[in-house]
Amino acid sequence: MRLDKFLKVSRIVKRRTLSKEISDASRVKVNGRVAKPGLKLKVGDIIEVTFGRTILKVRVKKLAEHVLKDDASELYEVIEESEREEE
């Protein structure tokens, strides 16, 4: 599954266009490397998303094309959520 679609389906990011934009802006890393929106994800990949000053790090547990809103959090586990240092 593509990175931008996973971010949307898992509800980490609310809209696919937004997930594509933040990926294009180099604010998403997969396994420690800056990732393009079309990167194919695998179970076990670690995704790091920067939202302003907040950094969310999650591990992919499951890939699914469609999930109900209440089940979206089953697709990943949160490893860490932290505040970014001022630059």
List strands and helices in order, with pairings.
Layout: H1 3-9, H2 16-24, E1 28-30, E2 33-34, E3 46-51, E4 54-60, E5 76-83
Describe this structure in words.
The chain has helices at residues 3-9, 16-24, and strands spanning 28-30, 33-34, 46-51, 54-60, 76-83. Helix 1 crosses helix 2 (16-24). The model has no long low-confidence stretch (mean pLDDT 92). The longest helix has 9 residues, at 16-24. Helices cover 18% and strands 30% of the residues. It has 2 helices and 5 strands; from the N terminus they run H-H-E-E-E-E-E. The chain has a single domain, classed as Structural Genomics Hypothetical 15.5 Kd Protein In mrcA-pckA Intergenic Region, Chain A (Roll), CATH 3.10.290.10. It has 87 residues and is of the alpha+beta class. Strands 2-1-3-4-5 form a 5-stranded antiparallel β-sheet.
Summarize the structure.
The protein is built from 2 helices and 5 strands. With 87 residues, it is of the alpha+beta class. Strands 2-1-3-4-5 form a 5-stranded antiparallel beta sheet.
Which stretches are poorly predicted, pLDDT < 50 over at least 5 residues?
none
Distance between the termini: 34 Å
Q: In DSSP terms, counting alpha (H) and pi (I) runs of 4 or more, how many helices?
A: 2
Mean of residue pLDDT values: 92
Counting structural domains, the number is 1
CATH topology: Structural Genomics Hypothetical 15.5 Kd Protein In mrcA-pckA Intergenic Region, Chain A
CATH class: Alpha Beta
* CA-based shape: globular
The CATH architecture is: Roll
Residues in helix, %: 10-25%
How many beta-strand segments? 5
What is the CATH homology-level superfamily?
RNA-binding S4 domain
Alpha-beta content class? alpha+beta
Major sheet attributes? 5 strands, antiparallel
Helix/strand order: HHEEEEE
